[in-house]
């Protein structure tokens, strides 16, 4: 497919596009010539030396390669395999979370991509940077949804990826949009780090108090809290959209111990809903995860909702449960320990400190959680800004290449450029 510059197209009013220089191409032809972009895929991760670093689909998260492989290096020679990564490559998830992508940095030079990871290598580094951004746009996501095969799990073929339509702006616009997206993502990563460290400090403070538990009274959780299991049934028969339930996967996959919940949820209208300050517990074999609701929420099937008897005990109870995640999964039922019953939880014993200790812990831990939640709130604003920018890119590309449509004005992208 030949790149068609936007200058050669006009709108029905006869005016050329304001975003001069944009072009519409297939992904495999996004370079100046077809040979400028190569696309391949990863290989099986069996049989590698122990020191060889590998990049799996689960390592590609939030636009970055995040992998915990201490001591691993990029030892493979570039010609040893098609799957050896080079700095500047774009690693793309082709299975399950199709379209998630990350640029390869020097940290993962000569690492090997495994099955399910596509590798896009562009002669011009700006093209790889743009493709990472493009894959996040609503237009690209919609196209991916239409072209994945889902016999077992969503999968995008390499041939489909090559044929994916891409709108490419001029190099100077790519650079500006890349810089803006990079700043947003870097700030969001910093906020996640701030929040995670604040929670770790509160965990450490709780662990320090736990060293003195010999003098504490032994009780069952039923004496200091109440609990209720989610039913998985529709939360309401009222007219209008039904609020979503919190699933175990949301809790197990949360990077921080918070669940946003639902804005303006009427608790009286939804008997299965719980207010802010409810601890939600989800289990699986090998461990459990807990999170506290920041707004009203409805626990789904497999989720245990826990409320402390005293509101000021919330943070102590949260960190007590965080410190006992392994024990919680041991009392869960089912083949994969996917559900803990109310009865089993309330019968667990706990060393419970006096009120003075719990109140002192609350006074110290509450500012830590407040700082963590401040970072979470800022990330929500950053996410909204990034989403607006991606929608603007998507909207502009649709308009520029749809005959008879007016050129869009304004928007985050117009302000950035």
Q: Helices and strands, in N-to-C order?
A: EEEEEEEEEEHHHEHEEHEEEEHHHEHH
Class computed from helices, strands and strand pairing: alpha+beta
**What is the residue-mean pLDDT, rounded to a whole number?**
88
Radius of gyration: 25 Å
Given the C-alpha coordinates, what overall shape results? Answer: elongated
Tally of individual helices: 10
Helix content: 25-40%
What's the structural blueprint in terms of helices and strands?
Blueprint: E1 4-5, E2 23-26, E3 37-41, E4 54-55, E5 60-61, E6 64-65, E7 90-93, E8 101-103, E9 112-113, E10 117-122, H1 125-134, H2 138-147, H3 158-163, E11 165-168, H4 171-210, E12 217-220, E13 225-229, H5 248-252, E14 258-259, E15 279-284, E16 287-293, E17 304-308, H6 314-322, H7 325-330, H8 342-346, E18 349-352, H9 355-400, H10 411-416
Parallel strand pairs: 4-9, 14-16
Antiparallel strand pairs: 1-2, 2-11, 3-10, 5-6, 7-8, 7-10, 12-18, 13-17, 15-16, 15-17
Helix pairs in contact: 1-4, 4-9
Detailed description of the structure:
The chain has helices spanning 125-134, 138-147, 158-163, 171-210, 248-252, 314-322, 325-330, 342-346, 355-400, 411-416, and strands spanning 4-5, 23-26, 37-41, 54-55, 60-61, 64-65, 90-93, 101-103, 112-113, 117-122, 165-168, 217-220, 225-229, 258-259, 279-284, 287-293, 304-308, 349-352. By secondary structure, it is α+β, with helices and mostly antiparallel strands. The strands form six sheets. A five-stranded mixed beta sheet has the order 13-17-15-16-14. A hairpin with a 2-residue loop joins strand 15 and strand 16.
């Amino acid at each position: 497919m030949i790149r068609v510059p936007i200058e050669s197209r006009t709108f029905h009013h006869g005016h050329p596009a304001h975003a001069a220089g944009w072009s519409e191409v297939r992904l495999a032809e996004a370079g100046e010539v077809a040979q400028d972009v190569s696309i391949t895929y990863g290989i099986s991760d069996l049989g590698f030396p122990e020191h060889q670093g590998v990049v799996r689909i689960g390592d590609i998260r939030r636009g970055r390669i995040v992998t915990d492989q201490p001591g691993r290096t990029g030892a493979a020679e570039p010609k040893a395999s098609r799957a050896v990564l080079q700095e500047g490559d774009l690693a793309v998830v082709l299975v399950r979370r199709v379209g998630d992508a990350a640029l390869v940095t020097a940290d993962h030079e000569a690492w090997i991509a495994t099955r399910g990871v596509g590798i896009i290598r562009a002669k011009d580094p700006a093209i790889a940077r743009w493709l990472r951004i493009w894959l996040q746009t609503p237009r690209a996501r919609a196209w991916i949804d239409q072209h994945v095969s889902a016999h077992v799990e969503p999968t995008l073929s390499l041939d489909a990826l090559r044929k994916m339509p891409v709108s490419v702006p001029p190099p100077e616009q790519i650079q500006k949009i890349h810089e803006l997206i990079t700043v947003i993502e870097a700030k969001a990563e910093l906020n996640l780090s701030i929040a995670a460290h604040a929670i770790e400090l509160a965990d450490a403070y709780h662990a320090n108090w736990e060293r003195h538990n010999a003098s504490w009274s032994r009780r069952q959780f039923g004496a200091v809290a109440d609990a209720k299991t989610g039913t998985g049934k529709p939360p309401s028969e009222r007219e209008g959209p039904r609020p979503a339930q919190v699933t175990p996967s949301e809790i197990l996959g949360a990077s921080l111990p918070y669940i946003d919940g639902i804005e303006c949820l009427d608790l009286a209208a939804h008997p299965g809903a719980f207010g802010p300050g409810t601890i939600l517990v989800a289990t699986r074999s090998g461990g459990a995860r807990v999170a506290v609701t920041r707004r009203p929420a409805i626990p789904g099937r497999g989720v245990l909702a826990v409320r402390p008897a005293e509101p000021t005990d919330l943070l102590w109870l949260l960190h007590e449960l965080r410190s006992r995640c392994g024990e919680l999964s041991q009392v869960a039922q089912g083949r994969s320990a996917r559900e803990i019953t109310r009865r089993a939880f309330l019968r667990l014993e706990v060393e419970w400190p006096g009120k003075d200790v719990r109140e002192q812990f609350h006074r110290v831990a509450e500012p830590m959680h407040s700082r963590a939640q401040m970072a979470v709130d800022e990330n929500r604003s950053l996410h909204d800004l990034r989403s607006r920018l991606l929608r603007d890119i998507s909207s502009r590309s649709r308009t520029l290449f749809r005959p008879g449509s007016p050129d869009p004005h304004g928007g985050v992208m117009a302000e950035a450029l």
